Amino acid sequence: AVGADSASVRWAVRQHRSPPLLGGARFRLLFDRFGQQPKFHRFVYLPERSDSATLRELRGDTPYLVCVEGVLGGRVCPVAPRDHCAGLVTLPEPGSRSSVDYQMLTLVLLAVNALLVLLALAAWASRWLRRKLRARRKGGAPVHVRHMYSTRRPLRSMGTGVSADFSGFQSHRPRTTVCALSEA
């Protein structure tokens, strides 16, 4: 039976046919927070023939390891302690803030990450689609490049006459900077 600041522990004792021991059979109850170092610096000696104990002044919402050892004739029984141990977690203290639910926190963070990945993929897909539609609407390459490299249009003929731009050119005049600029 576990509460916020206490826990009741029970165990069963088999009857043996051996002669009664001097000093009788007693028990020692070791307990401590799980993972505490050094282990089991807290223990309680129980009266003879007891088969239960109540541990008090425990912390709420904390894991504990509880072990029962036999004390025969004033000496601790050499049985491996892990064979007679149990783990327990005390209940949260009433009115206290509940601790963080790490499973729920993990699920929420996974959902947020998935949403961010979907948003990034949607942004990338919309950008890619916009580029495809813009290219399809324009018909491929820009107009000036298409006309420049097109093989479907014949070359323009130069004609036989001289262009009007060169009609005022006089080769006998000396070239000066002003003339060169005006001709340019």
Automatic annotation (TrEMBL):
Keywords: Carboxypeptidase, Hydrolase, Membrane, Protease, Transmembrane, Transmembrane helix. The chain crosses the membrane at residues 104-129. GO terms for molecular function: carboxypeptidase activity. This is Carboxypeptidase N subunit 2. It comes from Mustela putorius furo (European domestic ferret).
